[in-house]
């Protein structure tokens, strides 16, 4: 297989084709739902900070400098609610990043709009439900089912990508 030079790759990217991609309904849907779940994930950091402040819990000694020095060491501890929010954020990182990567490839395979919307909506809904269930400590199987649904969607999209473009 001949190697492509960067100048050859760059010259093959027609700006009109790229603009056309932004008009594609599936790509617009992907962009919308990817932005929603990325924003949801980004809000978990401030939520962790809110829980830390509300509970008077800090992860590092230097974070306590706005409080009296006598109480500094007592404030560096863990809290179950703060840890719950942190684990939820970590779970978002483990699931949303692969969704964005696989979802982009999926959108480029030209799926039907209805199928793509189903995938994107199920994933976004499952992640939002997962967060509500995790942070709100809802009883199982609510969190588990929302996580499973959120895992199945990228696998389904990956199957479409591999079955469309598999070149081994």
CATH topology: Four Helix Bundle (Hemerythrin (Met), subunit A)
Low-pLDDT regions: 1-11
**How confident overall, as mean pLDDT?**
84
Number of helices: 7
Dominant shape: elongated
> At CATH's second level, what is the architecture?
Up-down Bundle
Structural class: mainly alpha
Quickly count the domains. Answer: 1
The whole-angstrom Rg is: 21 Å
Helix content: over 70%
- How big a fraction of the residues is strand? under 5%
The number of E-state strands comes to 0
CATH class: Mainly Alpha
SSE series:
HHHHHHH
Main sheet: strands, sense, barrel:
none
- Identify the CATH homologous superfamily: Membrane associated eicosanoid/glutathione metabolism-like domain
End-to-end CA span: 13 Å
Keywords: Acetylation, Endoplasmic reticulum, Membrane, Mitochondrion, Mitochondrion outer membrane, Transferase, Transmembrane, Transmembrane helix
Organism: Scophthalmus maximus (Turbot)
Subunit structure: Homotrimer; The trimer binds only one molecule of glutathione.
Function: Conjugation of reduced glutathione to a wide number of exogenous and endogenous hydrophobic electrophiles.
Describe the structure concisely.
This protein has helices at 6-11, 15-23, 25-55, 72-75, 80-108, 113-135, 142-165. It has 168 residues and is mainly alpha-helical. The two termini are 13 Å apart.
